[in-house]
Write a structure and sequence with these properties.
By secondary structure, this protein is α/β, with parallel strands linked by helices. The protein is about 30% helix and about 20% strand.
Length: about 400
């Protein structure tokens, strides 16, 4: 009732709707709406489950880099963070204004590792000092529609994701009387400029979201339906999109690596180290990758260490000194961005599976798995070039 009493002042332009909604008793109501409310809570659970399942599939010691957009009152963060392993993942809590952070910090006081940063969906991430390609997940609730140009905003989010990274968010698909009565009072609700896409209101149906995500450069898209209202049209929906694992060219805002850093001019994420199996699958993979312009260094098993001085290596699997020499030569040239480990395919007694990982995304070290005496190499040689062994 107290908030309804402010309606006249809002309509007269004497007060901003945002001040009423996010201040005083209004803030408590929105906190419930975005957190425990029946309209939202099951979608928070769905997003949390998505991230949690992805975390379970990672190699031991590897954490996710998560960015939440439009985090506001902290409803999604307070639901997701308790379900993730502590001290392993990174979580960046963002909103367009830092004014939201004080309340969120109180709610998330038990998670001091959370980083709080302002992020404007309508501005280039690079302009806001965000490193492009540095997040595995971008998640959010009811915020992506609140921009002038949806395609541009989605393009910015794509730039933030690492290759293979996912955008997962929930939004309202169809305008409802209550949503326009409440949120339609805010100026941001009507800030849309892409009138050819959203001619009369900011919300979009699932099919529209998936189409626009493709136009923004995402490789895969999917959506989850919401409940249909009595007058038709879905309410809250889930939207998912994935960035391609490899890209033809780095985003324009990403500074190109020098030839020395990238390995004779190889672009980002196009340098591979393949531990090839005896059955030929690795050879086929290398052939395809090289046809696509990627650099591939190939490691096979043998009776003695050997290197052709370029991209072919042979090691004795049981000899730590061979692994040390391999790593020394590879890192001295240019550390690869991707690894594929296929030697498990040569071990029929144990079912094996092909897995790949990104060096830039895998902050773990190859030494413990291979039992290599890492002290033999200067620390800078392996700390600055994270390696991750991948096996079945």
């Amino acid at each position: 009732m107290a908030n309804c009493a402010e309606l006249t002042s809002i309509l007269r332009g004497e007060k901003e709707a945002v001040q009423v909604l996010f201040g005083g008793s209004g803030a408590d109501l929105l906190d419930q709406f975005y957190g425990d409310g029946l309209f939202t809570c099951h979608w928070l659970a769905a997003i949390a489950a998505t991230v949690q399942e992805a975390a379970k599939a990672l190699p031991e010691g590897r954490g996710l880099r998560i960015l939440e957009i439009g985090a506001g009152t902290g409803g999604l963060a307070s639901y997701l963070l308790p379900q993730l392993e502590r001290g392993l993942h990174s979580y960046t809590f963002t909103d367009v204004s830092a004014s939201f952070f004080s309340g969120a910090m109180q709610k998330l006081a038990g998670f001091p590792e959370v980083e709080y940063r302002a992020y404007d969906l309508e501005r280039s991430p690079a302009e806001q000092d965000y490193q492009l390609g540095s997040y595995d997940f971008v998640i959010g609730t009811n915020c992506v529609h609140a921009v002038g140009d949806v395609r541009e905003a989605l393009g910015h989010l794509r730039d933030l994701l690492a290759p293979g990274g996912s955008l997962v968010f929930m939004d309202t698909a169809s305008p409802q009387l209550w949503t326009e009565t409440v949120f339609g009072l805010t100026s941001g609700w009507w800030s849309l400029t892409d009138r050819e896409l959203r001619p009369v209101q900011p919300l979009m149906e699932r099919e529209q979201w998936e189409k626009v995500l493709k136009e923004a450069g995402f490789d895969e898209t999917a959506s989850l339906p919401g409940l249909t209202g009595p007058r038709g049209g879905e309410g809250q929906i889930g939207v998912l999109a994935r960035k391609a694992w490899t890209t033809g060219a780095a985003p324009a805002d990403v500074e190109e690596a020098t030839a020395e850093e990238s390995g004779e001019g190889v672009e980002l994420e196009t340098s591979w180290l393949v531990f090839a199996d005896a059955g030929g699958l690795g050879d086929q993979l290398v052939s395809r990758l090289r046809e696509a312009g990627a650099r591939c260094r190939v490691v096979t098993r043998g009776s003695a260490y050997a290197s052709d001085g370029q991209d072919q290596f042979t090691v004795r699997a049981e000899a730590p000194e061979d692994w040390t020499q391999l790593v020394t030569e590879v890192v001295a040239d240019a550390a690869p961005e991707r690894f594929v480990y296929l030697w498990t395919l040569d071990e029929p007694a144990a079912p094996a599976k092909l897995m790949t990982c990104s060096a830039a995304q895998m902050p773990c070290c190859i030494w413990p798995k291979l039992k290599i005496p890492s002290a033999r190499l200067p620390r800078s040689e392996w700390t600055n070039h994270p390696w991750c062994p991948v096996s079945g």
